[in-house]
Amino acid sequence: MNHVKKRPIDEVGKNPYPAFAYLNGKHPFKDQVPGGRVEYKARYKKGGKVAFFNFQLAKEMGLINKTHAEVMSADLEKEILETFSLVIINEYDLINEIKFSEDEILPNTFMATRYLQLQHPDKTGKTSGDGRTVWNGTVRHNGTTWDVSSCGTGGTKLSPACNIDKKFYQTGDPSISYGCGLSEVAEGLETLFFSEVLGKNNFKTEKVLAIIEFDKGLGINVRANPNLMRPSHFFGHLKQGNYETLKQVADYYIQRQVDNRVWEQSTFKSDKEKYYYLAHQVAKSFSETAAKFEDEYIFCWLDWDGDNILMDGGIIDYGSIRQFGLFHAEYRYDDVQRFSTTILEQKQKARYIVQCFIQIADFLSTKRKRSLNEFKKHHTLKFFDQHFIVCKNRNVLQKIGFKKNQQDYLLKSYLQLVTKFRNVFAYFERAKSKRGIYKVADGISRDAIFCMRDILRELPQLYLTRGTQLPPKDFTEVIKSSYAKKRDLRITAIRRQQIIRFQSLYMELIIAAGKGTAQNHNQFLLEITMRSSIINKYDRVTGDSITYIVAKVQKVRPKLSANELYQLALQFSSYQNLNPDQKPINPEVPVRHQNIMRNLYSIVRECREGL
């Protein structure tokens, strides 16, 4: 293909894939928030091929028909490349008067959005935002508008390198990494495998729509979500005291939530109610997210700039995402200039984000920016704290294996019992190795010594066969992790007491929840056993396992078509579906994939307790 001629939207009737025509750079944010973006002309990037396409997601978005075969055709690949294979014409190109063929230049501009970032010398968001990403546009299908963005499309003026070094960089400059504006296929694969697994397990997350591959492992990674706005999109304008643009951002975001039927317009009757409703929804989402991150051992590097997370608490930018196998609560990523937050510190960062949105609501209601400290006792923060505990209680009941109606009953009638069990659960979960903190490949950590999934999975089975509590030695044998050394496992008087307490409270919960069922005790315990075996699966994905899996897939990828990579991702995420209430989909594994899948399963098993 020597040039690109995208069909205009008024000619989409002649196009077998008409919805792609809307992903042409036009986006409502550009019009509604002129101070929130930088615009770039773009040109077609030659030499790309489609390495991956997410057929299921594309159907959900209306990009392809729901009956479309999940097979890459020549026409579909051409449409994907024409839509997403692009590179911006940036400031370096313009200053140096680099000439490009007119038939390669796309008709519309593409935006890089402005948002707050800690990496920038300017801590108010005047220079920061999308450093190597542009927004392709929106598509609407079945009442939902989807945002689509592409990472690896060239270096913008909003990248940290550009502002730290006080110069514009040519896209692909080998003297820098992030600031060069490019992305790698491996980054897209990591996001693909991780986001598909977490999405299957009810995490809010961006998804990979497509990966376009170029020479030397470079790629353009196309991502989609019903709303790709982050708290940091608000915070830059808040820090600058820019009322007009902050209001535009808030109004834009709220209207999208209403249009997508996430929020009801009738919930708020005035602008003031609207902005405080926004703050309340952030408090609800982020208390749930912070609790889930703690309980599922998700490291997201939440920080005060609100950069690494979506507005609804959804996961974005998988380069810094990890799921630990155990509660490695003192892990910190080393980012050269600073260490990251820990899992436990993420709650306070989430709370700070909520406090900022209370400040935003007040600012937009009064046109006067008051100090953030004036809102530290606001009732919305009290709601955050209370809802966080509610979520923590529900999460531990879900881990045991109780159904939602059983969780509701226990939280209503046996809240004190639930709280006591959660506390003793935390005692074992947070027990640390006497080895102390030490260096790991990308930071520092301290090992957790107990695997809570193992005890929750095995305990109901052992009760069914033994009919009695486990002696402390047997309990310790089940719960110990591979990180635990002999000195970590010594059964002190306190630990002996906690082992007895754990089992007693556990059985009290089982008996209490079983009262409202028609099953006898053993039948109910068998049901818990079956549900817990899925929820607390022995081999669960960790950050390390995803890294090794991507390396393994990269080795065999030259032999894999886009269709086959899609099938591998589907098979892998189905294998990691830990939802006992969802009917498992077990796609048939082609013979030539079986050895690959066995290798991937082996990697997950080997890394099950790690980082």
Q: Which key terms come to mind for this protein?
A:
4 domains, disordered N terminus, six-stranded antiparallel beta sheet, alpha+beta, single chain, three-stranded antiparallel beta sheet, 611 residues, 11% strand
Which bin fits the share of residues in helices? Answer: 40-55%
Distance between the termini: 44 Å
Q: Describe the global form.
A: globular
Radius of gyration: 25 Å
Counting structural domains, the number is 4
Relative strand content: 5-15%
- Uncertain runs are 1-5
Please report the number of helical segments: 20
Mean pLDDT figure: 92
Structural class: alpha+beta
By DSSP, the count of extended strands is 15
3D architecture notes:
The protein contains 20 helices and 15 strands. It is an alpha+beta fold. The protein has four domains: 217 residues, no CATH class; 158 residues, no CATH class; 135 residues, no CATH class; 64 residues, no CATH class. Strands 3, 6, 7, 8, 9 and 10 form a six-stranded antiparallel beta sheet that branches. A three-stranded antiparallel beta sheet has the order 13-15-14, with no helix packed on it. α6 runs parallel beside α19 and α9 runs parallel beside α11. The chain is globular. The N terminus is likely disordered.
